[in-house]
Amino acid sequence: MGNSLKTVFYRNLWGENPVIRQILGICSALAVTNRTVNSLVMGVGLMFVTAFSSLTLSALREHIPDRIRMIVQTLVIAAYVIIVDIFIKANLPEISKALGPYVGLIITNCIIMGRAEAFARKNPPVISFFDGLFAGIGYTVILLGIALIREILGFGTIFGFSINFIDFTKWTIMVVPPGAFFMIAIFIWIASGIQNRRLKKKEAK
Amino acid sequence: MTPQINPFIIFFASIITSNMVLSNFLGMCSFISVSNEFKTASGLGKAVTLVMVFTTVINYVVYQYVVLPLGLEYLRYVVFIIVIAASVQIIELAMDRFLPELYIKLGIFLPLITVNCAILGISLFMVIRNYNFWQSLLFGLGSGLGWWLAISTLAAIREKTGKSKIPQGLVGPGLTFIIIGLMALAFMGFSGIFVIQ
What we know:
heterodimer; A: 205 residues; mainly alpha; two-stranded antiparallel sheet; B: 197 residues; 9 helices; 72% helix; globular
């Protein structure tokens, strides 16, 4: 597997997309997607944390003893999450309330740990930074996709702006938790459907 | 301060209507990956319940008597994580010493639990909702039992679906999410009996 910027980008956005292909970071992906604004804030927060924790951990990778690396990783991640949390609380108090404990839960978000374990441990800092950033982008894109559909169908708004010129009955199911589960199932279905078709084409060749 | 809710209402609500996985989406990672088999799933459920009760109580005490007086609220994530990691270790050691049989059964799951978001989530909810000691204790216990109930049910259903024919793209996580969605709908049917938010 090459580690050029392009392959890292492609891998994190599609081939190994954290949410729909590796099924990581699902907790927050489901919880914050009832509104696009929340998802966007959450996604940007996660991007920041993954990018910088990958950078830090990769820079320190030769100094961290293997046996205690988990706790070191967790502490580094926690430090960045605290920054994000304080920033959101100070600048976007309403969204902070809506996101509730999920900002703090970025710490246990498997995507960050996963990137730290799988990539930052073995690669130099700059490329690790971008790897983390792209993993965050991959996560955000899927979140926004789910949130967009849920918000349009559930509330009849996009980014909080009403679209009531199209008249339809709101889908309550999109607002409540089961809607999130169904939406993510559909996304995974589409993604693996496309992947399966590609694999078949490759085999045919 | 929020009005004080009867701890027992919190207990039942956190099992059913405010189930950790099905309505708060916490602990999804292991919920998906360890639910292939009923026995293992149930084992993990027990371990999670145990750790949840332990960590909620310890985190409550630490938060009220150490973090708050010192004004270190912004460090609470770090404190909670360390408490969770430490108490998982202690539970492991204690079980190895006093309940070796149980240790062999649950041992493999314990390290996994440290990074289970449900455990940290419970402590954060506890802080956000201003629970007192008894509320926190029963909230931890109820959430653990709810998680156990949900993962065992899911595993039981998934064992059956292994034999059926389903669209190829849905095999694995796709179908699992649909099952979870249906389960969440069923659990929602109880809402209105107890409400906590």
